[in-house]
Amino acid sequence: MKLTLTLLLFLSVNAISGQNRNIEIKYGESYDKDLVDSVLDSLHLKNEFVVSFRITSVWMKNPDYLIITKKNNSIAAFKYVNKSENHLKKLSISQDSLISLWNPFISDLFEIKNSNKIIDNCSKDTSREARVQYIKMMPEDSHSYKFIIISKRQIKKLHYYDPEFFEKYCGSVVERQKIIKCVLMIKKILQSAIVY
């Protein structure tokens, strides 16, 4: 039994550390600290990877947001709080939960394109119902999911405007599905988080 547990622990640690070696940001650009706020830049200097996530809309001008960092085998989560002198609050989330979020959900973000770069048949092939629904719902009436993915040398920003709506009315797109699944997993894990 002891040997089995030791072997499982060894395999888990190797699987996590092996993830860092091959992760590459696709469709990114060279990192420039002017593209991010000072908190993200500071975390970038101390970690191998930094991922931020926020939900924005017309009603949320400066929303708080989630930050996940990865260095070696350690993953940490923070909440950026706008209305606080000390903006960065560490979240108490188990490593198991953070690992299940990182792989495959967060790591999928490294692979996908931004919404403005994906082929979407919505404008041509939408049903009458979808067009009527879209006309009724002005763009400012919904939300956007925004991710910033940072490695030591690269950065990528993902912006998906109401992917649930477009997935429902415009047909399925793999990138949208991955964004939606990632956001659902983030919300699930945050329900049990404690802010320090």
Question: How would you portray this structure in words?
Answer:
The chain has 196 residues and is α+β, with helices and mostly antiparallel strands. It has helices at residues 2-22, 38-46, 95-109, 122-125, 128-136, 163-170, 174-190, and strands at 29-30, 49-57, 65-71, 74-80, 88-92, 143-150, 154-161, 194-195. The longest helix has 21 residues, at 2-22. Residues 1-21 have low confidence and may be disordered. 21% of the residues are buried. The protein starts with a helix and ends with a strand. It has one domain. β3 and β4 (74-80) form a beta hairpin.
Strand order of the largest sheet: 1-7-6-2-3-4-5-8
Question: Overall mean pLDDT score?
Answer: 80
Distance between the termini: 37 Å
The level of helicity is: 40-55%
What is the oligomeric state here?
A: single chain
Q: How many E strands?
A: 8
Pairing-aware structural class of the strands and helices? alpha+beta
Figure out the total of helices: 7
Q: What's the SSE pattern?
A: HEHEEEEHHHEEHHE
Main beta-sheet annotation: 8 strands, antiparallel
